[in-house]
Amino acid sequence: MAGVSPSTVSKYLNNSEALSEIFRERIRAAIEKLDYTPSPIARSMRTGRKNLIAVIVPSILNPFYSEVYHAIRFECLQKGYTPVLYTTDENMDVLRTILTNLGASHVDGAILCFLDEEEIIKRIEDLEMSTPVALMSWHVQSPKFCCVVVDVYSAVFAATSHLIGLGHKRIGYIGGRLSRSISQEKLRAFTNAMDSAGLPIREELIASDHFRYEMGFGATRTFMQNRNPPTGIVTANDVLAVGCVKYLVNSGFKVPEDVAVIGHDGTQLASIYEPSISTMVQPIAETGRAAVEMVVSRIEKPTSKKYRAVFQCELKVRQSTSKSAPLVFEF
Question: Average pLDDT of 160-175?
Fold first, then answer.
């Protein structure tokens, strides 16, 4: 129908640049008229691949990981791959089991999202021999892997500096479990920002545990019962920030007049919550796209170079730190 050869259609379906715009339009029109969909089974028989990519996240209950998976899923489908989701529930034994079984699970590649690479680096070195891997993390030293790196240190430093710039001197911090290296890095950023401003770091205003709503709620309750409670609180993610604001509002405190709160991640939850929550926005769509591109490149061209992509976060000021911030729902 398009008046071209099967190989030309194949080039179109595989997004080859070596195709004229005239041919592209004719093939696109024929595909639309015929309602044609490429057969994944036929493609698998030809290439020897299953067109499956494993995506491993700590928890799907955290909106951040849901949005990361959504970004990865969208990009996988654009490239003709299907993502297979695994969750560890923040349990290292579960993660080890997943990694042990991954080599025999017939996936073509794997994306590991914000797991503690120090704990698993040796295991995935063996996995990488047979299955291309991309790491999404905050810091990866090994040149043996493709990796997408988010600079969380600069982000938490900037979040703390934002509250300091607003005149806050008694600032609390709520983070993740300090057994995780990413939580240690975020806390280090907070303490360094406070030190740089000459402000005291009060141990009674620092709390660490799971990245969950109830943690943010309970830690804030403890903070506010202190003789000198904080006027500002930095949280290590948006889920903690929501729990924090929830306690403050329910207890009669005004946000941000009595206590200003800032989160980290830039999830939709932070935007739609009332009051809307200031946060350090991660470029979730861009990082998901980069991770998929890395894995697909290694699947389709095993000798392609491994590389590292670094992304920065952006401060988004909302009503939890600025009463005059506009009420805008971002989707």
Answer: 98
Going from the C-alpha of 265 to that of each of 140, 150, 280, the distances in angstroms are 19, 10, 6
- Poorest-confidence range of 101-110, 213-222, 249-258? 101-110
Reported as a single tens digit per residue, the pLDDT across 228-251 is 999 999 999 999 999 999 999 999
More confident residue, 173 or 43: 173
Query: Do 45-151+283-313 and 152-281 have matching folds?
Result: yes
| Residues forming a β-bridge with 280 | 264, 315
Per-residue confidence (pLDDT) for residue 263, from 0 to 100: 98
Domain boundaries, the chain: 6-37, 45-151+283-313, 152-281
Does the pLDDT at position 277 exceed 60? yes
The mean of the pLDDT values for the chain is 89
| Identity at 189, one-letter amino acid code | A
Beta bridge partners of 114: none
Q: 152-281, what's its fold? A: Rossmann fold (3.40.50)
Q: What CATH superfamily classification does 45-151+283-313 receive?
A: Response regulator (3.40.50.2300)
The 10s digit of each residue's pLDDT in 55-66 is 999 888 889 999
Judge contact between 191 and 202, C-beta under 8 A. Answer: no
Helix (H, G, I), strand (E, B) or coil at 207: strand
DSSP conformation letters of 152-191:
HHHHHHHHHHHHHHTT--SEEEEE--TTSHHHHHHHHHHH
* DSSP string over 218-265: HHHHHHHTSSS--SEEEESSHHHHHHHHHHHHHTT--TTTT-EEEEEE
Contacts of 223 (CB under 8 A, 6+ apart): 172, 204, 205, 207, 229, 230, 233
At a CB cut-off of 8 Å and minimum separation 6, what does 221 contact? 247, 251
DSSP secondary structure code for residue 305 in this structure: P
